[in-house]
Every structure is written in C-alpha cells, then in structure tokens.
Amino acid sequence: MSKKTLVLGIGNLLLGDEGVGVHAARALQREECPCAAEVLEVGTAILDALPALEEADRVIVLDAMKYDGNPGTVYRIPLGRCRSSQCIASMHGFDIFRVLALTGREVPPEVLVYGVEPSYIGWSLELSPQVTNALTFLLESVKMEIKKKNFGASSQLAHLSPRP
C-alpha cells in the first residue's frame, strides 16, 4: 500500500523570497505532481492544511529557510531537526509544529522540509534571481522525493546545490 504524500507550499508572496514555497507549490500543481501527491498552496494560512495533515502519511514542506548559506541553496531536512535549530525563515502566525499537534494523531506523519536560502525578504511579488534559478532544481528534487517509498532515516541537514 502506498503512503499518501502531502506537499505544502508555505510562505508570504508579498515578501519576495519568503514566498518561494507558494511559487513552488503552484509550479507543481501546474505540472500535475507525480504519484498522486496532494499539493496545497498554503501561504501563511497553515491552519487551512489541518484536514489534509490528518490524512497524510508523509508531508513535504516547501519554504524559505535561513541557514546562512548562499542565496538559492536548497536544503533537505527532517522537520524535527528544524525545531532544534529554528531554521525555517517564514514568519507565519501558526507554525507547522502546532498544526501537527492539533491533528490529535497518535502517530504523526513523516515530515520533511525543503527550504531555499533567501536572497531578499522585503516588499516584492517577485523571487530574487538566485531563488528563481534554484526553483527548477527544487521542483525536481521534490518530485524525486515523492517517488520514494519513504523519506529514509537520515536526520541530517543536506545542502543541495542547483546547477548554475
């Protein structure tokens, strides 16, 4: 039996690179994401994802991530690792940890974060050139992740670099 995968695009479209998760989710929706994964453009309304989170076995969160790398660097990290390092850059009123707690599930879904190091977070509807260049790499990485049977046991941060 295959696991139900949910992809959440998180971020604020009004703040430049902070909206990368939403831009990525929209692109995946246009491409009809593989393996029947459900893709939601959540933006800053993370609570809206609660019903989908209650049903998912695996969750991939797409977001901006400040980890002091070069702008456009793509990171792959289990959500539990984010908690200890405070690495998600998004400024959302209700974070994914609290929303997962609200599901009331005895066994929470596996959650993996794909983050992109921002170049510019400020008033803009556009992504910076560095983050725009990383978007194709991010989408391909996420599509490959969806096709896997599970996320694997790695609890390490992975720095993934898009090709120039």
Structure description:
With 164 residues, the chain is α/β, with parallel strands linked by helices. It has one domain: HybD-like (Rossmann fold), CATH 3.40.50.1450. Helix content is 30%, strand content 21%. The protein has 5 helices and 6 strands, in the order βαβαββααβαβ. It has a 6-stranded mixed beta sheet. β1 (5-10), α1 and β2 form a beta-alpha-beta unit. The model has no long low-confidence stretch (mean pLDDT 83).
Q: What number of domains?
A: 1
* Number of discrete helical segments: 5
Q: How does the helix and strand content classify structurally? A: alpha/beta
Number of strands: 6
* Whole-number mean pLDDT: 83
Strand order of the largest sheet: 2-1-3-5-4-6
> Helix and strand succession?
EHEHEEHHEHE
- Quick one: biggest sheet? 6 strands, mixed
Question: What tags apply to this protein structure?
Answer:
single chain; alpha/beta; 164 residues
Short précis:
This protein is α/β, with parallel strands linked by helices. It has 5 helices and 6 strands.
Q: What topology does this entry show?
A:
Layout: E1 5-10, H1 20-30, E2 38-43, H2 50-55, E3 58-64, E4 74-78, H3 79-85, H4 96-102, E5 110-116, H5 129-147, E6 158-160
